[in-house]
Amino acid sequence: MARKEPAADAANPGRLKQIALTYKMTRKADKKIGLVLAAVGIVVLGVLLAIGFLIGHPIYLGILGLLLAFLAMAIVFGRRAERAAFGQMEGQPGAAAAVLDNIGRGWTTTPAVAMNRNQDVVHRAVGKAGIVLVAEGNPNRVKSLLAAEKKKMNRIVVDVPVHDIIVGHGEGQVELKKVRTTMLKLPRVLTGPQVTATNDRLRAMGDLMSNMPLPKGPMPKGMKLPKGGKAR
After folding, report:
1. Phi, psi of 143 (to 5 degrees)
2. pLDDT value at position 141?
3. Any idea what the Cα angle at residue 78 is, between residues 37 and 167, rounded to 5°?
4. Which of 27, 40, 213, 225 is the most exposed place for a label (fewest CB within 10 A)?
């Protein structure tokens, strides 16, 4: 137990620092975040205290109100921080790759499996729902990229369903903040071994990333394909 305590103590400052950093980043895009959190906390605490005085237990309800106030503030903060993060990522090349990188367990993601010189990109995710191709860029241009990639997937893994998503705000497109939810709602049709086998076959095929190094997360706006690089 004595050995675990220093580790726990060291982790707490790290978590607090992360929360503080997240708050600062959120406040840049959401100037009212401080007022909103304060209002939520005061309202929740005030309601519980009022109930406590009415029933004759202000201390018990006050303690409960304090706990619920912190919980409510944490929930509101998390949602507004997520909204602010998506707002900052919106429109940046490679933003969808950052979302896929945090989709959760059970998915294997590969960014930039297809790209053209205009930085329209197709990313790939493999999970129990099958193969999901996520495209970002000009809607008209990415359709040809998606079609080519889907044709390739259907040729290599004929027994695996292939879904496609175009990130955007237009008709038939999916907003960046809804990409993860959309993917998680897809029906699960593959078993664990089938997912592993599919990933093995795709790795054997290779992809654009094996020939061109790209940073994780949103790609720099000035980034272009190297001369001689083939766009899919």
Report:
1. -60, -40
2. 85
3. 130
4. 213
Is the pLDDT score of 211 beyond 50? no
pLDDT of residue 91: 59
The answer to whether 88 and 74 are in contact (CB under 8 A) is no
| Contact in structure between 199 and 126 (CB atoms under 8 Å) | yes
Query: How far is 232 from 218, CA to CA, in rounded Å?
Result: 20
Give the SS3 label for residue 152. Answer: helix
Instruction: Compute the residue count for the chain.
Output: 232
Q: At residue 5, what is the residue type?
A: E
Answering whether pTM is above 0.85, one says: no
Contact 138, 118 (CB under 8 A): yes
**Residue 186 burial (CB < 10 Å; 0-12/13-18/19+)?**
middle
Structure tokens at 63: 């303690």
From 211, 213, 215, 214, select the one nearest 228 (Cα to Cα).
211
